[in-house]
């Protein structure tokens, strides 16, 4: 048996099902490109029948991403399969992922059916999908709680029908590692045609065992792992890509390898966290802010003598910076450039670097130290000159006072200001911005995160706005929460191309 483990990334499908983590097609394309660069073998790009947005994303990713297989999910339903095949028409390596419930919970309660009937439906779905593409993955939903003898019968039947990959999901995150490993071994030993398909592990993390179960699966003969960046996914999430990749790298005794370029893990973790507005818990294995930060005196001493005394992985192998705290107000432009390049902001022109450095100094002034999160948020505000920038902000608010904001914007070379009252200081400031630019903007979503570094607090604000039925997202960061909010609002507004198309003077004169 080949020792290669195939990485099937489902960040854009199972990961994206998390409430509040929905991405637009552009964001999905950006993540898909980075997954390709990371070296994943399969990208599950969406569930095309579920929404026009999902359909469009599968089409767009199929056009742009060429090395990995592009996979689309379906139920065991002919219409789903037809729509998935249509969405995959531009894919160089298309795969349809179809399936049906395998546990008695699903068979009896979800489908009100029988074991024989669900096998027949699964087989029919695989045969139907085979009319459109060669590569068919079959999922036996809730296989974790399914009877192994029945599961083996189902898997044998779908392989005979043409399935090239058989996915054994622990949909509810129920299994113990030994139990899941034995399930995979049972299938290898009891499915007569198992050598004609790859067994895939798809584990959820409800009891915190997704990675352990996945490793048990591949140790017992599975050769594909279904994972997400940062372990994002429904409920407690899916198996995290970075954990499995680093287990394979760290435990050479497993004698398994993958195509993953682990040095690209950390930047992609940051990108996914930022785009999905899903912070990574600080103690998250491999990619958490504290995963390589040694704070106790004894540990620091040990690390200084020899890193291996307390580190089983080299942070650089994962693309993690050597130090969690990286820059201060005393850091120079070269240091900033170095860290920006490390985070993927390459090829900055001299002018862009000067602007970035000015922004950095402003930020570092209000904070003791600036970390990767801060830099990424800072860069999201664009390095190049924004069409509309915040020049000055003053707010008056408090008990029994109508919240009032005076905003001064720099639009091109012109300065324009307005004062507005609102139902709160943020609302007042945003209304003042609207009044200056003379546009009807709807605030669809507003999210604040605080990033507490010792006694210094930074507010990170994310907004989603709507203008002429199109949505735009923006980020802002500042030590002042209202300033961060206005920056995020302007960041989103600057993405409205119709607004940029207007000359600056037109915007100014209109007011
Ligand atoms: O968890 C699960 O069972 C799934 C299937 C649709 C593959 O996500
Ligand atoms: Zn799942």
In words, what does this structure look like?
Mean pLDDT is 88; it is low at 294-300 and 503-511. Helix 1 crosses helix 2, helix 1 runs antiparallel to helix 10 (265-275) and helix 7 runs parallel beside helix 8 (210-219). This protein has three domains: 6-275, TIM Barrel; 293-380, no CATH class; 388-509, Double Stranded RNA Binding Domain (2-Layer Sandwich). It is 39% helix and 21% strand. A hairpin with a 2-residue loop joins strand 12 and strand 13. 45% of the residues are buried. The protein has an eight-stranded parallel β-barrel with strand order 1-2-3-4-5-6-7-8, surrounded by seven helices. Strands 9-10-11 form a three-stranded antiparallel β-sheet. The protein is an alpha/beta fold and 511 residues long. It has helices at 25-38, 52-64, 78-87, 104-110, 115-130, 148-160, 177-190, 210-219, 241-250, 265-275, 297-305, 333-342, 350-366, 372-380, 425-437, 481-493, 497-501, 504-509; strands at 6-9, 42-46, 69-73, 94-101, 135-141, 165-170, 198-203, 224-227, 388-398, 401-411, 414-421, 442-453, 456-467, 470-478. It binds 3-methyl-2-oxobutanoic acid and zinc ion. The site of 3-methyl-2-oxobutanoic acid (KIV) has 8 residues, from strand 5 and strand 6.
């Amino acid at each position: 048996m080949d020792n290669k483990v195939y990485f099937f990334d489902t960040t854009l499908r199972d990961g994206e099902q998390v409430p509040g983590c929905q991405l637009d097609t552009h964001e999905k394309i950006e993540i898909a490109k980075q997954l390709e660069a990371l070296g994943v073998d399969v990208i599950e790009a969406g569930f095309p029948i579920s929404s026009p947005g999902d359909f469009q994303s599968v089409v767009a990713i199929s056009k742009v991403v060429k090395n990995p297989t592009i996979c689309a999910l379906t139920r065991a339903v002919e219409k789903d399969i037809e729509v998935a095949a249509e969405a995959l028409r531009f894919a160089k390596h298309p795969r349809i992922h179809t399936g049906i419930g395998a546990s008695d919970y699903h068979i009896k309660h979800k489908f009100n059916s029988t074991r024989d009937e669900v096998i027949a439906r699964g087989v029919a779905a695989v045969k139907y999908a085979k009319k459109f593409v060669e590569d068919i993955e079959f999922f036996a939903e809730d296989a974790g709680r399914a009877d192994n003898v029945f599961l083996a019968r189902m898997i044998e039947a779908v392989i005979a029908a043409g399935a090239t990959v058989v996915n054994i999901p622990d949909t509810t995150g129920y299994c113990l590692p030994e139990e899941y490993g034995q399930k995979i071994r049972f299938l290898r030993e009891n499915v007569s045609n198992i050598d004609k398909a790859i067994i895939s592990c798809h584990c959820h993390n409800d009891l915190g065992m997704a990675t352990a179960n996945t490793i048990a699966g591949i140790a017992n003969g599975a050769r594909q792992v279904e994972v997400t960046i940062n372990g994002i996914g429904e409920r407690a999430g899916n198996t995290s890509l970075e954990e499995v990749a680093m287990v394979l790298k760290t435990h050479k005794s497993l004698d398994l390898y993958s195509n993953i370029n682990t040095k690209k893990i950390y930047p992609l973790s940051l990108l996914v966290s930022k785009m999905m507005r899903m912070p990574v818990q600080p103690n998250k294995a491999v990619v958490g802010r504290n995963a390589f930060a040694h704070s106790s005196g004894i540990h620091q001493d040990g690390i200084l003598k020899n890193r291996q005394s307390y580190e089983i992985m080299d942070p650089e192998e994962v693309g993690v910076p050597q130090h969690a705290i990286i820059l201060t107000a005393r850091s120079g432009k070269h240091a900033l450039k170095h860290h920006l390049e490390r985070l993927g902001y390459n090829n900055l022109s001299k002018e862009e670097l000067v602007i970035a450095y000015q922004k950095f100094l402003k930020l570092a002034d209000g904070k003791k130290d600036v970390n990767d999160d801060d830099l990424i948020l800072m860069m999201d505000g664009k390095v190049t000159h924004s069409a509309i920038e915040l020049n000055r902000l003053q707010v008056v608010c408090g008990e029994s006072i109508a919240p009032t904001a005076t905003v001064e914007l720099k639009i091109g070379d012109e300065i324009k200001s307005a004062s507005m009252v609102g139902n709160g200081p943020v609302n007042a400031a945003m209304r003042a911005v609207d009044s200056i630019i003379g546009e009807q903007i709807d605030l669809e979503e507003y999210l604040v995160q605080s990033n507490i570094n010792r006694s210094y607090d930074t507010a990170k604000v994310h907004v989603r706005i709507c203008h002429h039925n199109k949505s735009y997202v923006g980020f802002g960061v500042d030590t002042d929460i209202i300033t961060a909010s206005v920056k995020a609002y302007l960041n989103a507004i600057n993405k409205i191309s119709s607004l940029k198309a207007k000359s600056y003077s037109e915007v100014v004169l209109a007011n």
